[in-house]
Amino acid sequence: MVFDKEESVSLVPLQSKGKPRVCAGCNRRIMDRFVLEALDRYWHEDCLKCACCDCRLGDVGSTLYTRANLILCHKDYLRLFGMTGNCAACSKVIPAFEMVMRARENVYHLDCFACQLCSQRFCVGDKFFLKNNMILCQLDYEGGHQNGNSADQAL
Ligand SMILES: [Zn+2]
Ligand SMILES: [Zn+2]
Ligand SMILES: [Zn+2]
Ligand SMILES: [Zn+2]
After folding, report:
1. Dihedral, 70, 76, 77, 80 alpha carbons, nearest 10
2. Residue 75 belongs to what domain range?
3. How far apart are CA 48 and CA 42, in angstroms?
4. Domain-located, residue 1
5. Which GO cellular component does the record give, naming just one (predicted)?
6. Ligand with minimal distance to 46 CA
7. pLDDT band at 20, cuts 50/70/90?
8. Phi, psi at 46, each rounded to 5°
9. How many domains does the chain have?
10. By C-alpha distance, which of 26, 45, 46 is closest to 35?
């Protein structure tokens, strides 16, 4: 799995003679004894939080993840960006946040989710069939063979 960007968070002592630090989260001066440094900016301990679950990243460990202007904990990063994988039809990577179709353990681009024999697209309620990891419409499935490992599902 490849992460877009991985940043480690370090708790650094604030130098009393240093310039005043402004928190990148709340834009207020940081008067605390310690300041978090991450993404080349400074943060209150309470302000460096996961954009999804609000957990404090300074506490949780030493690594945070950034993508699409979000700061995320490991768990949420994986949940949002780690699961998409490759389209089972065209084998290309499906970008995060793109709508996908799922059939069993496979994921597909919306555009790729069509009968792989006749290219018919499916509408909600249509039945589709998986045979040898190919998506088939009902006609092609029934016109073909009735054996093999297959499953019918309705959208
Ligand atoms: Zn702050
Ligand atoms: Zn989180
Ligand atoms: Zn595809
Ligand atoms: Zn078909």
Report:
1. -90
2. 6-81
3. 9
4. no
5. nucleus
6. 1
7. confident
8. -80, -15
9. 2
10. 45
Residues 26 and 63 occupy one common structural domain: yes
What separation in Å is there between the alpha carbon of 55 and the centre of ligand 2? 6
- Residue at 30 is within a domain: yes
To which residue do tokens 């679950």 refer? 53
pLDDT in tens, 44-95: 989 999 999 998 888 755 578 888 778 988 888 877 776 578 899 999 988 7
Q: Are residues 13 and 72 in the same domain?
A: yes
pTM summary value: 0.49
- The number of the ligand nearest the C-alpha atom of 45 reads 1
Measured from the Cβ of residue 1, the count of other Cβ atoms closer than 10 Å reads 7
Residue 134 lies in a domain: yes
Give per-residue burial for 74-92: e unless 16+ CB within 10 Å, then b. Answer: bebbeebbbeeeebbbeee
